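Q: I'm writing up a methods section and want to include an example of the input and output format. Could you take the sequence below and give the corresponding predicted structure tokens, formatted cleanly so I can copy it straight into the document?
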Amino acid sequence: MNIDVSSNRDLDPVSLAQKLIRCKSVTPCDDGVVDLAAGFLRSVGFQTHIIESGPPDWHIKNLYAKFGHRSPNLAVIGHLDVVPAGNMSDWKYDPFAAYIEDGILTGRGSVDMKSGFACAAVAAKSIVDRSFDGAISFLVTGDEEVGTEHGTRAILKWCFDRSIKFDACLVAEPTGTGNLGQAFCIGHRGSLNVELASRGIQGHVANPEKASNPLTPLIEYLHFMKAKIWDKGDGIFPPTNLEITSIDVGNSTPNLIPSSAQAKLNIRYNRLHSAESLIKDLKLARNFFSPSPDNLSIEAQYNSDFFICEDKSLINNMFSAIKEVLEIEPKISAGGGTTDGRFISKYCPVVEFGVPEDEMHKANESIAVNDLIKLTEIYKVFYKNFFGTKFK
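A: Here is the clean output for your methods example:
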């Protein structure tokens, strides 16, 4: 049964999430989603600014919205762009119809992360009509899933050009797996992309002595690096992990030894390492498998560094909010993928909490309606904890 929840005041976050999902905002397309978000925040008292960035073929609309003028200023970060739906035949419903059946909301962005924004925005209504010391700012981008240059970083530049500062940040991204509230994040591992190029001598497979197969040292090297135990984590950060993401030769001839081969890998690293130390380790190990660095080259691209929140008050506030609403004690984590929290973490402490991440980017991406209602209540308590304001 398709449920219309728009008239039910208690399900406002679900209604807003549905409206957002119905915008086909696959990066970099906006399809009206940022204006929709801005309109909602204006309707409850926020001042809004549309920040546009990027060239004509990658034109991004971003949103900065603020309520209040005093300190502290709490930033709430999110994105409204989504990944493509993929094969439409894999979907039970139209991925942009925001269909609800048996208490489950299905649609692209229902998890990552239009519902998180909807819950945080609706929860913010609870402080608009009250006198409180501080301000709350929403930084909402349409450029998170593919690029980052014209997204949150562009909003932050706009803010700092105007001397707008933040004292803390909530990222409303999907967090943890399983049931809502099992964990929240206070940081993430760094990310290092690596490209390998192995060079050999082309020849016939029947005469290997007259050729040099570039795949042999490349595969041996990849096997060695994949088997390496970098560390065991440190209780908050998971272990450092290397994943091979591509091996390419471009050879369609079965009896031809190729002249070159390429591979790509990614390393997610914790605070026990740095990008520089990892690159040094990669190059040191390479010397055992190739007689010359030119024959097995390594090009590393720094993606993001690890970050960690050390503000105990902010961490305790989120812990207490989850415990009060759900009556469970969440795990404090620094796992999961990178988020735009890494950009603002350079300027203020960051915590991240949203719906469970199990369904994100999948066909039939979906979330329980009840989770959105509970998440909204958690955000309300979090705001109360942060600002010290009493709510109904």
